């Protein structure tokens, strides 16, 4: 091709256009592929405090009693979210390896049934790979009746492999109104399940 | 480049303006007051001088060519057009210089990512367009609004010394202690910056970011939001007051007490006048930016007028609902969580009685409390 | 090719059609090139007048002229119009005019697509500019349109903005495909890749960058569109999305984009400096490799725009090192240009003045870029006027001066008339002084702590802002002089230009008469 004169014309133009269009479509797809890729990347690197997923082998480790790590909890509401939402304790000292349960309290002070979902985030981001939630309300949407108040449990384990330089982890939840219209009948039916799940 | 700096400064200062009283022609970064900011300053100056040195060599050769090798001087062109040795050299030498730059840069970065134990933890939340500081371990928090008046901004009044950099409630931290800041935002991305601390981090809705500061020298330090966050992005300053430890402890005790008092305020018996008086102040900080100081609205109709409009003259419950829960899909935020019951009651009462909306009606903090908890 | 040949056979004896249809339906690369250049200059004036509004408001502290909402619309539209409306179309215009002349081809490879890709642009910008008159105003979230400010909190006109970006993206992609097809298929016999003029090389690489990243931009605005209108949550934390993801995708497009705006200027300057130094370009091969290296590295550095979003330390280090590396190939280019001047026989006509200023000022912009690459120092520079100074130093004397240099260099070829040298030099010196006066003080403002994108500022920033505004007005007004110079030239007032008006110029474009006839190289020239 290097010394191609201009006369070999149409077919090579078609080929160039086809290759380019292939590239365009591929890159358009790549833009969207960045969404799941980014999630994977975040999980590996802990960018943005996306905490490590469910931790299945909960019993396997035993607590490292020689080491204490402070875990701090904080909660805030997203825009236009009228619920009262806060942790029961501000912070707790834990040994890496032990499974800890803490409660968050949510209350819907409005006169209508609402659905909320809490989005977790952890700081410092270097610690995210070592913070495992075995049970969390943040995995589900929460539906609360008018005036209903629930305690929502969170069970977590701080990994024994947490780097020595980290002494304090802060787990933050932001509660968002999911703005779902809940039909009245369904509301009544699901009430018991919601409360049950949140124990 | 530094030569440019000096020359430009001298030229401009000498010829253009008789500088105003407040002029200070600051041209360089200030070293700041923390170890971090000093390290950054040192790094900044190192890189700057390396760049200046490279610039002097490269531009030196160039200007000399421009001066000596011109046709008007009868210079005949040479014909060389490549030299492998030279080309390899000027690939390798810049690379080596970059390595030299990268070493202190890496060291500084590592120092910044220090996660050693902190003594005070504050959650900093960005809102359109104010900051909120929550003292996590002490169960109180407050909003920090710009206190520069609209009159100053619109040139109806002389501008004060800390024009645009003053707030009603600064963040307060103790001197000499490591303070950990957890940044998040309620609506859009904001960024918290105090130049003298060498600390800047984005506050992102739904996520928290961590930074820390340790300031030895008590004083007041100022900064601004640095991520475009909408209309009043230029009007959400950061002010941090660093107090000696004892004073900080006193302040802390005061705050705890005030938080307790605030809770009690909702129980007190209020008169219409008291509420209107308190409400005027609340309105100025929370509402006037959009609805206008005189309640006449703004934004070309985007922010409705409150003068005689049904919302503020008719059904109280509806008025309460709008202020507490906001109006979704519009710029009207839910103030339920941002303002205390007393402030909510005050501002609603104020709106119903100001600018000729003389309804004579009032809402008590208790009613707001009940409304929020019904 | 037979399609091209057919059009040819018909047109050959006719020359250009008359009236409006000539411009509407033309497939001639010279006509389309001219339309691109005229369009981009119109956009340059429009975007520039928005910059004048910005600088007028910032002339003094306090709000005098515009409200903050409108100020934000101005900064956003200024950025969008300058990037997508002025700089990119100007380079496509230069490519249209010059690539066929430089490779010895009769026209672009895909002339009908060429027509279409141009006419999409006015449509896109009509839509974009019309948002200014819509309820809620034009986009006001900065040209980087970070979510959620641009999604959940964006004005209603955002959807039109997205659609406009889609159209201009399609236009750019079609332009890039055309450039690639022309360069790969239409070169004159004997012109091997490593004999191609540098402007052709830089454009080839730019076209590949465009094809790689414009679809990503289309993707990110499509995600915005879906978040706004179809209830998805790509960038909304409330639905499990992530606002920072937006920045990653945007800057994956955005960083190569800034090289798209500068690489063709590298090419232009690599022609002009040898021409006026009367000495061949130093290090042709290393110039080509350097451009390639810059283009490749541009895909690995995007997160240096995001050092403050909270990236883990190894991420910061990776992006810092990768960004610093870009200084190596960029340095090679600057050294090569200086070595080309060294021991030459230089004269300083207007194109050369713009090119020399390009080298100096672009290098200063490169230095501030290097400073910004240092992650810990970036915490102090980020989103301040230091950044504004940096990118205006690489884009105004980089892209814009490159375009001016190209315009003066090739005007005689386009119009057959020499421009007025005195006026040209006046244009250069006023631009040079105005530009430095406008943008150099911004370095100081940023270092002293002034955030960018604010409509009003604290009092300690007042003095340099006033200087900067004066410089900006000077630079802005000067561009009307350029319009005058070009119009004068087009009208034919001036000395007639010979086929090769520059003593030291090299290349096939100088082998055809001035002005270049409507059809050139119907039979390909032979390249030794």
UniProtKB/TrEMBL annotation, chain A:
Membrane-spanning residues: 16-38
Superkingdom in the source lineage: Bacteria
GO MF terms held by the record: copper ion binding
Membrane topology classification: Single-pass type II membrane protein
UniProt cross-references to InterPro entries, sorted A to Z: CtaG/Cox11_dom_sf, Cyt_c_oxidase_assmbl_CtaG
SUPFAM superfamilies (alphabetical): Ctag/Cox11
A Gene Ontology cellular-component term: plasma membrane
Gene3D superfamilies: Ctag/Cox11
One Pfam family named in its UniProt record: CtaG_Cox11
Record's subcellular location: Cell inner membrane
Key words, A-Z: Copper, Membrane, Signal-anchor, Transmembrane, Transmembrane helix
Function description: Exerts its effect at some terminal stage of cytochrome c oxidase synthesis, probably by being involved in the insertion of the copper B into subunit I.
Recorded family membership: Belongs to the COX11/CtaG family.
Protein name: Cytochrome c oxidase assembly protein CtaG
Organism: Marinobacter daqiaonensis
Lineage start: Bacteria, Pseudomonadati, Pseudomonadota, Gammaproteobacteria, Pseudomonadales
UniProtKB/TrEMBL annotation, chain B:
SUPFAM superfamilies: Cupredoxins (SSF49503), Cytochrome c (SSF46626), Cytochrome c oxidase subunit II-like, transmembrane region (SSF81464)
Keyword Transport: yes
Subcellular location: Cell membrane; Membrane
Keywords: Copper, Electron transport, Heme, Iron, Membrane, Metal-binding, Respiratory chain, Signal, Translocase, Transmembrane, Transmembrane helix, Transport
Membrane topology: Multi-pass membrane protein
Endpoints of the signal sequence: 1-23
EC category: translocase
Positions of the Cytochrome c domain: 274-355
Domain of life, source organism: Bacteria
Necessary cofactors: Cu cation
Domain Cytochrome oxidase subunit II transmembrane region profile span(s) in chain numbering: 21-116
Cofactor note (record): Binds a copper A center.
EC code(s) of this entry: 7.1.1.9
Reactions performed catalytically: 4 Fe(II)-[cytochrome c] + O2 + 8 H(+)(in) = 4 Fe(III)-[cytochrome c] + 2 H2O + 4 H(+)(out)
GO cellular component: plasma membrane
Stretches that traverse the bilayer: 47-67, 88-110
Matches recorded under Gene3D superfamilies: 1.10.287.90, Cupredoxins - blue copper proteins, Cytochrome c-like domain
Domain Cytochrome oxidase subunit II copper A binding: 117-254
Protein family according to the UniProt entry: Belongs to the cytochrome c oxidase subunit 2 family.
Primary role: Subunits I and II form the functional core of the enzyme complex. Electrons originating in cytochrome c are transferred via heme a and Cu(A) to the binuclear center formed by heme a3 and Cu(B).
Name this protein carries in UniProt: Cytochrome c oxidase subunit 2
Native organism taxonomy: Bacteria, Pseudomonadati, Pseudomonadota, Gammaproteobacteria, Pseudomonadales
From TrEMBL, chain C:
Lineage, top ranks: Bacteria, Pseudomonadati, Pseudomonadota, Gammaproteobacteria, Pseudomonadales
A GO cellular-component term linked to this record: plasma membrane
Single annotated GO MF: heme binding
Membrane topology term: Multi-pass membrane protein
Role of this protein: Cytochrome c oxidase is the component of the respiratory chain that catalyzes the reduction of oxygen to water. Subunits 1-3 form the functional core of the enzyme complex. CO I is the catalytic subunit of the enzyme. Electrons originating in cytochrome c are transferred via the copper A center of subunit 2 and heme A of subunit 1 to the bimetallic center formed by heme A3 and copper B.
Enzyme class: translocase
GO biological process entries: electron transport coupled proton transport; oxidative phosphorylation; respiratory electron transport chain
Keywords: Cell membrane, Copper, Electron transport, Heme, Iron, Membrane, Metal-binding, Respiratory chain, Translocase, Transmembrane, Transmembrane helix, Transport
Segments forming domain Cytochrome oxidase subunit I profile: 23-528
Sequence intervals crossing the membrane: 35-56, 76-97, 118-138, 158-186, 198-225, 245-269, 281-303, 309-332, 353-375, 387-411, 432-450, 470-490
Main location as per UniProt: membrane
Catalytic reaction(s) noted: 4 Fe(II)-[cytochrome c] + O2 + 8 H(+)(in) = 4 Fe(III)-[cytochrome c] + 2 H2O + 4 H(+)(out)
NCBIfam families xref list: CtaD_CoxA
InterPro entries to which the protein is assigned, alphabetical: Cyt_c_oxase-like_su1_dom, Cyt_c_oxase-like_su1_sf, Cyt_C_Oxase_1, Cyt_c_Oxase_su1_BS, Cyt_c_oxase_su1_dom, Cyt_c_oxidase_su1_bac
Compartments where found: Cell membrane; Membrane
EC numbers: 7.1.1.9
Superkingdom, taxonomy of origin: Bacteria
Family: Belongs to the heme-copper respiratory oxidase family.
Pathway info: Energy metabolism; oxidative phosphorylation
The name this protein goes by in its record: Cytochrome c oxidase subunit 1
């Amino acid at each position: 091709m290097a010394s191609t004169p201009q006369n070999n014309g149409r077919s090579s133009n078609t080929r160039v256009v086809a290759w380019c269009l292939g590239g365009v479509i591929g890159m358009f797809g790549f833009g969207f592929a960045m969404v799941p890729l980014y999630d994977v990347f975040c999980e590996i690197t802990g960018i943005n405090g996306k905490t490590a997923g469910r931790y299945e082998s909960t019993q396997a480790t035993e607590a490292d009693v020689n080491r204490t790590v402070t875990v701090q909890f904080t909660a805030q509401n997203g825009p236009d979210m009228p619920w009262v939402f806060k942790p029961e304790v501000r912070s707790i000292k834990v040994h890496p390896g032990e499974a800890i349960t803490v409660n968050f309290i949510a209350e819907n002070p409005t006169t209508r049934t609402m659905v909320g979902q809490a989005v977790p985030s952890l700081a410092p981001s270097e610690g995210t790979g070592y913070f495992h939630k075995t049970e969390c309300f943040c995995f589900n949407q929460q539906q609360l009746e008018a005036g209903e108040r629930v305690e929502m449990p969170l069970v977590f384990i701080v990994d024994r492999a947490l780097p020595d330089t980290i002494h304090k982890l802060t787990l933050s939840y932001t509660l968002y109104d999911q703005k779902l219209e809940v039909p009245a009948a369904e509301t009544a039916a699901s009430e018991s399940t919601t409360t049950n799940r949140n124990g | 480049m530094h030569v440019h700096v000096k020359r430009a400064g001298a030229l401009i200062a000498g010829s253009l303006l008789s500088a105003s009283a407040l002029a200070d022609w600051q041209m360089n970064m200030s070293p700041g007051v923390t170890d971090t900011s000093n390290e950054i300053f040192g790094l900044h100056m190192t890189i700057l001088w390396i760049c200046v040195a490279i610039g002097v060599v490269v531009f030196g050769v160039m200007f000399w060519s421009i001066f000596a090798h011109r046709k008007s001087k009868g210079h005949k062109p040479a014909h060389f057009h490549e030299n492998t040795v030279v080309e390899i050299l000027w690939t390798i030498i810049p690379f080596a210089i970059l390595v030299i730059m990268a070493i202190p840069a890496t060291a500084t970065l590592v120092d910044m990512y220090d996660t050693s134990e902190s003594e005070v933890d504050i959650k900093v939340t960005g809102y359109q367009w104010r900051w909120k500081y929550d003292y996590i371990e002490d169960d109180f928090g407050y909003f920090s609004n710009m206190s520069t008046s609209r009159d100053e901004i619109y040139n109806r009044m002389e501008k004060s010394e800390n024009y645009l950099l003053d707030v009603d409630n600064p963040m307060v931290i103790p001197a000499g202690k490591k303070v950990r800041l957890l940044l998040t935002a309620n609506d859009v991305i904001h960024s918290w910056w105090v130049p003298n601390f060498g600390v800047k981090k984005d506050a992102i809705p739904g996520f928290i970011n961590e930074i820390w500061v340790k300031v030895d020298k008590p004083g007041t330090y100022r900064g601004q939001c640095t991520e475009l966050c909408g209309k009043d992005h230029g009007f959400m300053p950061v002010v941090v007051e660093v107090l000696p430890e004892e004073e900080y402890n006193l302040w802390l005790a005061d705050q705890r007490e005030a938080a307790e008092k605030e809770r009690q305020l909702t129980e007190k018996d209020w008169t219409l006048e008291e509420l209107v008086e308190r409400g005027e102040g609340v309105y100025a900080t929370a509402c006037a930016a959009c609805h206008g100081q005189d309640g006449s609205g703004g934004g070309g109709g985007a922010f409705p007028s409150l003068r005689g409009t049904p919302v503020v003259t008719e059904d109280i419950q509806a008025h309460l609902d709008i202020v507490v829960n906001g109006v979704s899909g519009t710029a009207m935020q839910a103030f339920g969580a941002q303002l205390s019951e007393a402030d909510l009651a005050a501002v609603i009462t104020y709106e119903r009685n100001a600018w000729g909306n003389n309804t004579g009606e009032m809402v008590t903090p208790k009613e707001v409390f009940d409304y929020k908890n019904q | 090719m037979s399609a091209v040949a057919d059009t040819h056979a018909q047109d050959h004896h006719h020359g250009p059609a008359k009236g409006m249809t000539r411009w509407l339906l033309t497939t001639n690369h010279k006509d389309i090139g001219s339309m691109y250049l005229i369009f981009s200059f119109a956009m340059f004036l429009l975007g520039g007048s928005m910059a004048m509004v910005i600088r007028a408001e910032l002339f003094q502290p306090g709000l005098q002229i515009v409200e903050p909402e409108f100020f934000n619309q101005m900064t956003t539209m200024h950025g969008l119009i300058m990037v997508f409306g002025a700089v990119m179309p100007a380079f496509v215009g230069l490519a249209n005019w010059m690539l066929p002349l430089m490779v010895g081809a009769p026209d672009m490879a895909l002339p009908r697509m060429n027509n279409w890709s141009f006419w999409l642009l006015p449509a896109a910008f009509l839509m974009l500019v019309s948002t200014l008159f819509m309820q809620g105003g034009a986009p006001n979230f900065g040209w980087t349109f970070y979510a959620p400010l641009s999604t959940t909190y964006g004005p209603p006109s955002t959807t039109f903005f997205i659609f406009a970006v889609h159209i201009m993206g399609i236009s750019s992609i079609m332009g890039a495909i055309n450039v690639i097809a022309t360069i790969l298929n239409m070169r004159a016999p004997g012109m091997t890749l490593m004999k191609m003029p540098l402007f052709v090389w830089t454009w080839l690489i730019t076209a590949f960058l465009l094809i790689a990243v414009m679809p990503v931009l289309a993707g990110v605005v499509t995600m915005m569109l879906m978040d706004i209108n179809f209830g998805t949550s790509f960038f909304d934390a409330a639905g499990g999305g992530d606002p920072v993801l937006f920045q990653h995708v945007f800057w994956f497009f955005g960083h190569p984009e800034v090289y798209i705006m500068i690489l063709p200027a590298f090419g232009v300057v690599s022609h002009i400096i040898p021409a006026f130094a009367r000495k061949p370009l130093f290090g042709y091969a290393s110039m080509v490799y350097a451009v390639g290296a810059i283009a490749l590295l541009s895909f690995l550095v995007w997160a240096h725009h995001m050092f403050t979003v909270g990236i883990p330390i190894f991420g910061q280090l990776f992006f810092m090192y990768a960004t610093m590396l870009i200084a190596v190939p960029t340095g090679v280019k600057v050294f090569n240009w200086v070595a080309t001047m060294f021991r030459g026989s230089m004269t300083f006509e207007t194109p050369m003045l713009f090119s020399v200023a390009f080298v100096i000022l672009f290098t200063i912009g490169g230095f501030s870029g290097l400073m910004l690459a240092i992650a810990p120092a970036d915490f102090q520079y980020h989103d301040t006027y230091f950044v504004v100074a940096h990118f205006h130093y690489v884009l105004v004397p980089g892209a814009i001066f490159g375009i001016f240099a190209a315009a003066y260099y090739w005007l005689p070829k386009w119009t057959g008339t020499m421009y007025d040298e005195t006026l040209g030099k006046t244009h250069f010196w006023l631009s040079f002084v105005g530009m430095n006066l406008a943008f150099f003080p911004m370095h100081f403002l940023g270092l002293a702590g002034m955030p960018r994108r604010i409509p009003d500022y604290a009092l300690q920033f007042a003095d340099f802002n006033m200087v900067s505004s004066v410089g900006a007005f000077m630079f802005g007004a000067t561009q009307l002089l350029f319009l005058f110079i070009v119009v004068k030239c087009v009208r034919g007032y001036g000395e007639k230009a010979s086929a090769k008006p520059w003593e030291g110029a090299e290349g096939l474009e100088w082998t055809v008469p001035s002005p270049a006839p409507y059809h050139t190289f119907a039979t390909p020239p032979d390249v030794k």
